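Tokens in:
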């Protein structure tokens, strides 16, 4: 009986000393972190619509506020995202009968992530995603839907890189 009590006492002490915090999304967040900031991502492309910056910044803010329990503040958070949209491109990818049969919309975002508590987790990286569309579809009309899907993929990649070490 004493062996059993000693065993459970040892296990409870061992597990109580662990400090890794895991959110409901599976993200590993330092327990000391209480705030997160997402700076405005500027549009450094020549083609993209002016609203690209605002839409991307809001999407990333939504993702981090929905998937973490950190308070979202304007600047100087314990965890920080900043960067810019570095590429916006629509190009033909499939040719049939001397004409494009498919186009590809590509968006790249340069992200700098700063973690005040775990400096080894800091990174600066360019994330790129694309979406293909038939050439008979008007790109201007399809753009909002394409951008929304690409932003969903990009923010998922950024979140996973920052909090899931992918």
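Residues out:
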């Amino acid at each position: 009986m004493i062996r059993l009590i000693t065993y459970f006492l040892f296990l409870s002490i061992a597990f109580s000393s662990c400090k890794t915090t895991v959110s409901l999304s599976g993200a590993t967040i330092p327990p000391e972190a209480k705030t997160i900031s997402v700076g405005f991502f500027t549009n450094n492309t020549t083609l993209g619509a002016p609203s690209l910056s605002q839409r991307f910044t809001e999407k990333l803010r939504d993702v981090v506020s929905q998937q973490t329990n950190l308070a979202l503040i304007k600047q100087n958070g314990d965890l920080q995202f900043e960067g810019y949209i570095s590429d916006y491109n629509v190009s033909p990818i499939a040719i049939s009968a001397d004409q494009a049969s498919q186009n590809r919309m590509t968006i790249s975002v340069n992200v700098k992530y700063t973690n005040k508590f775990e400096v080894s987790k800091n990174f600066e990286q360019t994330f790129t995603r694309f979406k293909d569309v038939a050439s008979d579809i008007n790109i201007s009309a399809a753009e909002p839907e394409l951008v929304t899907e690409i932003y969903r993929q990009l923010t998922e990649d950024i979140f996973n890189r920052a909090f899931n070490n992918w």
